[in-house]
Amino acid sequence: MGLWSRFKVVFASKANKALNKAEDPREVLDYSYEKQLELLQKVRRGVADVATSRKRIELQLQGLEKQESKLEEQARAALAGNREDLAREALVRRSGLHTQIADLQAQLAGLQEQEEKLVVASQQLQAKVESFRTRKETIKATYSAAEAQTKITEAFTGISSELGDVGLAVQRAEDKTAEMQARAGAMDELMASGALDDASGTNKDSLTIELERMASESDVEAQLASMRNELGSAEKKAIED
Description:
- The N and C termini lie far apart (139 Å).
- It contains four helices and no strands.
- Residues 198-202 have low confidence and may be disordered.
- With 241 residues, it is an all-alpha fold.
- The chain folds into two domains: 3-155, Helix Hairpins; 201-241.
- Helices cover 92% and strands 0% of the residues.
């Protein structure tokens, strides 16, 4: 395959793919239905035209038949009045009308046969068009349902992907929250144990300070009493010696 042939094949395949993507089956079905309706209208107009021609010939026949009857009456009247020449002329004219009437009757029969065929064809075509319309609407409804289902599936897939990302973010937030809670708990434990007490005592309340001061004074007095007792015992022992 030459380069140009390959290019044409590739171009045709690309164009066909683009057309398939752009083509909406519902629009194609509606267009086809409209074309069938146009064809049905043409057939109906044809039936109407034939019926009009038939009616025109029928009217012409009625007129000629009246003339034929009138000429026959005139011929009888002329013959009764001993005017055989006039009777002969009337009959000659009547004969010419009879030939015209026969021709028109043949045309009328042909038009009636054609009209009947067109009426049958019109009825058959109308039945096909109605059947196609029903099928068209069914296909359109099925296609629309499938299209909606596809959109829902695509949307669900997109949401699922986004929810996956959100889930990771939520997991990270929960991990950070748990870490902060653990740190806060550890700080509370350190504060309770006194490991983080302020060396200057500025973090102690007044009651704690007062209690510590009283405990310190009591301890000092106890130590002084102990020392006095020790000194008294030593002096007493020295005197006894």
